[in-house]
Design goal:
Structural class: alpha+beta
Shape: globular
Helix content: 10-25%
Number of strands: 46
Number of helices: 14
Radius of gyration: 31 Å
Strand order of the largest sheet: 39-40-42-41-43-44-45-46
Distance between the termini: 16 Å
Oligomer: single chain
Length: 827
């Protein structure tokens, strides 16, 4: 009876929160806690007093109420204004704006102005007097001194890429062809025509006995053959001597497809990346059913392949000499360690587990161009003036990344830099490029344990940055004297912009921001465009002149959001009891928090997604709904924590790779330390702690409840991974290798293998149209729990939702259930 009355009271309170009834929290004196890692007493700021309590209807509503923020911002060509877009939630179209750096208001561009607007992407000629860009598949050229714009093509077949050649003419790519556009005459010249087919046989002399007999005995047959041979020889000689003819077609075989092409600055050489045409990212025998198809039937949506069945063949590179019409295969033997058995110890361990033995032997590895998940550059980098070429290659086993130069005469690679990692090479922090006008290149590398910036010239490598912080977003200054970059030097959760003089190594800090930011250097090199946020303020645009005062350019956050008394989470360091470094976390305290309160507080730990993601920073969280939900929870008496558990981004290589072959175990150890820390420092009752998260966060919820059943009293797993063998290959094979090579890692790391440990209430929520973590993941785990006769779980499905939910009604339903679970089980 007591439990029924308690549940009735909790349901009434839940209904008040969901429907919008307000509640008032008391305000008590502030308290202090001892941060053991810092060895100082750090006061907690008291949570602000909200006059109106938050409701789930409000925070899960259409996010436009927070303001239509400026996104995708970039500089104008003259560095005097910026362009950006604003898009209403679920609107199909974004509007484009332009705002002068000294103006307070932006102007929305009309549709007939968009092709004339300064474009985010484009290329400059050698003296930077012209800019070429592609708009809707066609080429435009802008005279930068006058602003005059000319459209050079008007066609429906989209152009893929454009670049200025050293001659001043333009080259562009269209399909598997490369064209040269002579700006002085307007003539279009085809430089390359690639056909992915076998070369035509041509006119051959008879070879077999019967064919020779036919030609010997039948004069007509012999005459026709001789005429055809003469015509072919004439056509070939004419093409060779007549300069008006286009060059010969390149036939590269019928078994491959072109992945990427890159032309040298003088237009002589073309690098082509090829891969097996039969490879597909799609599952061979699987689909994702859409039960609410537009015609009333079940639509079969193509699904990606799982890591267990993905068999990527790799890429190979060929070099085409367009002057000599010679093709060279770029060979991989020059890559140091190209044939090493880097997984030998893993294979031996798995063989031993099966009672077998493993003998290591060298064998060429599957390679491809580097696939960085964050960059906008190519893995093929030509020098701007000389015929020198760098490529960045990676091994498909994820253990090596190479920067290599290419000998254009022989087609051989020469290793300029090898980055090896026994765990896996990071799929970000891979920027590299030539220093304009010099025989020198820069690159990022995690070889020190943190992403740092290096430059190499004359065979000598120099570190331009050093320290236990992360460097990214590298930009070469217009005069090629400095490299600009972003780094979290002062605090892992605070990012600022710096620059280093290449010649001397002298470093300057250019911004003083407490939060997170991205930047873009102006074309004239005089100012920074910042997209920056703080803990309670979403991204706005700012202008920071080099050496000048910071100026806010936009203010699109709504008054309703900006004037609310949001609680800023406090970033703390939690000492690890498991041999790791300090664990950074965000902490939210209940309104009216009292460290001496006899009634200890319930608590919730939120597990961020992606695994390799940073959330315990000083900027506005990408999880903005969760940020508001956590404020709501504090208004209802909860302590809330977001942890950057091991595997998270922003803390260096060792933190990132701590989960190698062991996903879900180091992270849960960190969650245990988080619960202990809250009990000691924020008056939390360890018997009243719950957890939740989505995607990787849902996976961690499973691993915690299955393997540490006393740690949390309830958990909610959103769009969760349940079996890593069913996730995609690019992500999973980094951390767990592949199931055929390393089944031990998959069985150790997949929740479905540990489901028998569930003892506390669990809520599982999944979108049926999730093409990232398949709905099938949850279906399989549910059946496993049923067969294990586990009665303490519930499920909720969302028929129209992909991985990232889109409908406010789905968000509301999801968080109503999470809130109800915590109210019922933690209070």
């Amino acid at each position: 009876m007591t439990r029924l009355l308690r549940n009735a009271a909790l349901s009434a309170l839940s209904l008040a929160i969901i429907s919008g009834c307000s509640a008032t929290a008391s305000n008590n004196d502030s308290s202090t806690v001892s941060n053991q890692s810092a060895s100082v007493v750090v006061p907690f700021a008291m949570p602000p007093q909200a006059e109106q309590a938050l409701t789930l209807n409000q925070i899960m509503a259409n996010p436009d109420w927070m303001g239509l923020l400026a996104k995708n911002a970039y500089w104008s060509d003259d560095s005097q204004s910026v362009y950006f877009s604003r898009q209403e939630h679920q609107s199909a179209i974004a509007d484009v704006y332009q705002q002068g750096i000294n103006q307070s208001q932006a102007t929305i561009l009309k549709l007939n102005q968009l092709h004339l607007a300064d474009q985010k992407r484009g290329v400059f000629n050698t003296d930077k007097s012209q800019k070429a860009y592609i708009y809707k598949g066609n080429i435009f050229v802008k005279q930068l001194n006058s602003g005059e714009i000319k459209q050079l093509t008007r066609q429906n077949n989209a152009i893929d890429d454009v670049k200025f050649l050293n001659s001043g003419d333009l080259a562009y790519m269209q399909g598997n062809s490369v064209f040269k556009l002579h700006l002085d005459t307007g003539m279009t010249e085809q430089l390359v025509d690639i056909q992915m087919a076998k070369a035509p046989a041509g006119v051959k002399d008879p070879e077999s006995y019967i064919a020779k007999q036919q030609h010997r005995l039948i004069a007509y047959v012999a005459l026709q053959h001789d005429k055809n041979k003469s015509r072919a020889e004439y056509a070939e000689e004419l093409a060779a001597q007549d300069p008006t003819f286009a060059p010969k077609t390149w036939y590269l075989g019928d078994s491959e497809t072109v992945d990427e092409m890159s032309l040298s600055a003088d237009g002589r050489y073309l690098v082509v990346a090829l891969s097996d045409k039969n490879y597909s990212w799609r599952a061979e025998h699987d689909i994702m059913p859409n039960y609410l198809g537009k015609d009333g039937y079940v639509d079969a949506v193509p699904a990606r392949a799982r890591v267990a069945e993905d068999n990527y063949p790799g890429e190979r590179l060929v070099l085409l000499d367009l002057v000599e019409h010679v093709k060279k295969d770029i060979t991989i033997e020059g890559l140091t360690g190209f044939d090493e058995d880097v997984l030998a110890s893993v294979k031996a361990e798995n063989a031993k587990a099966k009672g077998e033995s493993y003998t290591s032997k060298p064998e060429p590895r599957v390679l491809q161009l580097m696939q960085d998940w964050g960059w906008g550059q190519s893995a093929i980098q030509w020098h701007d003036t000389d015929n020198k070429l760098l490529v960045m290659m990676e091994a498909h086993d994820n253990k090596d990344r190479w920067i290599a130069s290419v000998d254009l005469q022989s087609g051989k690679l020469e290793t300029e830099h090898r980055l090896h990692d026994d765990a896996w090479i990071n799929y970000t922090f891979n920027q590299f490029g030539w220093v304009t006008g010099e025989d020198k290149f820069y690159y990022l590398s995690e070889e020190s344990g943190f992403s740092q910036l290096y430059v190499k010239a004359d065979g000598k490598t120099t570190a331009l940055t050093k320290g236990e912080y992360v460097v990214d977003q590298v930009t070469l200054s217009p005069d090629a004297s400095h490299l600009y970059y972003r780094a979290n030097k002062d605090h892992p959760g605070t990012y600022n912009v710096y620059r280093v003089e290449i010649a001397t190594g002298k470093t300057e800090q250019l911004t003083e921001w407490t939060g997170t930011l991205d930047y873009k250097l102006s074309p004239d090199g005089q100012s920074l465009l910042l997209t920056a946020s703080t803990a309670v303020n979403p991204n706005e645009l700012y202008i920071q002149p080099i050496g000048g005062e910071l100026k806010q350019l936009t203010q699109y956050t709504s008054k309703a959001f900006s004037q609310y008394a949001w609680q800023a989470p406090q970033v703390v360091k939690i000492p690890s009891t498991h041999g790791a470094k300090d664990i950074y976390a965000r902490v939210y305290l209940p309104q009216g928090y009292d460290a001496a309160n006899a009634d200890k507080y319930p608590a919730v730990i939120f597990n961020h997604g992606a695994g390799y993601l940073q959330n315990a920073h000083n900027g506005f969280s990408g999880y903005f709904r969760e940020f508001m939900f956590h404020n709501l929870l504090t208004q209802q008496g909860y302590v809330v924590m977001d942890m950057d558990y091991r595997g998270s981004k922003g803390y260096g290589r060792d933190w990132r790779t701590a989960v190698y072959r062991n996903m879900g175990h180091p992270e849960v150890e960190d969650l245990k330390d988080g619960v202990s820390w809250m009990a000691k420092h924020t008056n939390v009752d360890t018997a009243k702690v719950g957890t939740y998260g989505g995607s990787y966060g849902g996976f961690l919820t499973f691993m915690a409840l299955f393997n540490e059943p006393e740690l949390f009293q309830a958990g909610a797993a959103l769009r969760p991974v349940t079996d890593w063998a069913h996730y995609n290959a690019p992500y999973t094979s980094n951390i767990l290798n592949t199931p055929d090579v390393d089944p031990i890692a998959y069985e150790r790391s997949s929740p479905i293998e540990h489901a028998q440990g569930l003892e506390k209430p669990l809520l599982i929520m999944s979108g049926v149209l999730d093409d990232n973590v398949f709905f099938q993941d949850s279906v399989r785990l549910v059946q496993r729990l049923i067969e294990l006769e586990k009665p303490m779980f519930e499920t909720a499905i969302y028929p129209v939702e992909p991985h990232g939910f889109r409908q406010p009604s789905s968000w509301l339903d999801e968080y109503r259930r999470i809130y109800k679970l915590f109210e019922q089980e933690l209070k």
